[in-house]
């Protein structure tokens, strides 16, 4: 699938499920939201860019602490829905339709750039990181939070296959080492990072993006057919008869970087 088709699929998926992402427990109430404030210590004069804002959870979290937040998203219905939810409580957020791989902002505009639980939908992560670095001021901070693939290839293939079966707009979760290589080649230096396991209750998780029962069954059967190594790594919990998936967990990485001063 070429890049344009991938991005169109993202628009279709998130346009249809905009309200679900506003209310999603894993998006709206993650422990990482208060933690990002603790890590960044935001200042009242900062101008922030939140890329692929989705339900606007990062933008909402940072809004009280900074001067202005620009919340961008590729999907207009998603962005419009988020704006309608936040506009009454967050008056310093501006909403801009934008492609993460081709940002409509001048070089060195922002004090902080953030992107949370979205880059696995981007066809070209290298372009995304290049753009994030470009629009950052020298010395500015970049915060990334996303699901990451294990370094072992077969574990990564399983994780990405599960995600793709559930969500047609999924492209690929990168590994931590792949992200670090992209940071290094774009002038971003890691300051702080944290790995964590994130557990999903299967019926809720699969229901966010699955279009029908057949798709849900396909995802569930693929997980049930996993070998013991995969079931152990992803901590797959099954029903007593082992005919249904109850929950599983994946890896998530949170990292704060600083743009090098030339």
UniProtKB/TrEMBL annotation:
Transmembrane segments: none
Pfam entry (one): Methyltransf_11
Keyword Transcription regulation: no
Domain Methyltransferase type: 49-143
GO MF, any single term: S-adenosylmethionine-dependent methyltransferase activity
Gene3D superfamilies linked to this entry: Vaccinia Virus protein VP39
Keywords: Methyltransferase, Transferase
GO biological process: one example: methylation
Superkingdom per UniProt: Bacteria
InterPro entries attached to this UniProt entry: Methyltransf_11, SAM-dependent_MTases_sf
Name of the protein in question: Putative SAM dependent methyltransferase
Source organism: Schinkia azotoformans LMG 9581
